[in-house]
Amino acid sequence: MVQTNAEWWNTAQMLQFVDSQEEFNSYGKYLDKYSLFNSFSMWNPGRAFIFWGRFYMYSALFNNHYKIPFNFLRPGLEIKYACEEATNVGSKTYFLGAEFNGETW
């Protein structure tokens, strides 16, 4: 089970020689249309403001203090590796969609 969808995987599997998350991030503009979730409409507007404030402070801590460039809303290289290994061993892959969406919330 992976937190992405089949369209994302069909595009990501064409990236054969990507070895680092930084290199993988450069392809984000092609992969984001399948996986990046930009709207939290299931929350009331007051709580969404609090969530985004906490989210960006946490993201800034990782990016600036620990120097880890990471987007929490985008599937990363680990998802690509998990899908590759599942394909190599012939196991069934279940695509669960984006982590934060109306169906999984």
What's this model, at a glance?
The chain has helices at residues 6-12, 21-25, 28-35, 45-65, 77-89. It is an all-alpha fold and 105 residues long.
What does this 3D model show about the protein?
- This protein is mainly alpha-helical.
- The chain has one domain.
- It is 51% helix and 0% strand.
- It is built from 5 helices and no strands.
- The protein has helices at residues 6-12, 21-25, 28-35, 45-65, 77-89.
- The longest helix is centred in the middle third of the chain and has 21 residues, at 45-65.
- The protein is globular and about 45 Å long.
- The mean pLDDT is 81.
List keywords for this structure.
mainly alpha, 51% helix
Strand content: under 5%
Q: Which consecutive residue ranges, at least 5 long each, have pLDDT under 50?
A: none
The total of helices stands at 5
Question: Given the helix and strand composition, which structural class is it?
Answer: mainly alpha
The tally of beta strands, per DSSP, is: 0
Distance between the termini: 16 Å
Residue share in helix: 40-55%
Please tell me how large the radius of gyration is: 15 Å
Q: Characterize the overall form.
A: globular
Integer average pLDDT: 81
- Count of the domains: 1
Taking the sheet with the most strands, its summary is:
none
Query: What string, H for helix and E for strand, traces the elements in order?
Result: HHHHH
Topology:
Blueprint lengths: L5 H7 L8 H5 L2 H8 L9 H21 L11 H13 L16
Helix pairs in contact: 1-3
